Amino acid sequence: MKTYCFALDLHDDPALIAEYRRHHEPEQIWPGVLRQIRSGGVLSEEIYLIGNRLVMILQTTDDFLLDEKMAADSLNPEMREWERLMWKYQRPLPQAGPAEKWMRMEKIFEVR
């Protein structure tokens, strides 16, 4: 199993953050988005929030290829529409490049 961790910020607006949280309630997420998330070797996806900082953790199969998954997601019309909607709430991290949204984090410590 592979693990990936990503970070992204939300706009620092309590009303927008509350809306973003509602969009991620199980009954609110679009079924097509859930299907797309689960495709291509993703075993689980979790998003954590503190203040306006988001952290996403992906657990994937050993043969998972992140670049292929990102390309497939970008070709899915429902996923593109979801991402457009989510961008209302999200903002890039200060160190993000012009086309970067979720930024992959570097693991610096692990205990087993």
Please give a structural write-up:
The protein has 112 residues and is an alpha+beta fold. It has a single domain, classed as 2-Layer Sandwich (Alpha-Beta Plaits). It is built from four helices and five strands; from the N terminus they run βααββααββ. Strands 1, 2, 3, 4 and 5 form a five-stranded antiparallel beta sheet that branches. The longest helix has 10 residues, at 14-23. The two termini are 14 Å apart. The relative contact order is 0.26.
Could you give a short description of this structure?
It is globular, with a radius of gyration of 14 Å. The protein has helices at residues 14-23, 31-38, 66-75, 77-86, and strands spanning 2-10, 42-50, 53-60, 90-91, 103-104. Strands 1, 2, 3, 4 and 5 form a five-stranded antiparallel sheet that branches.
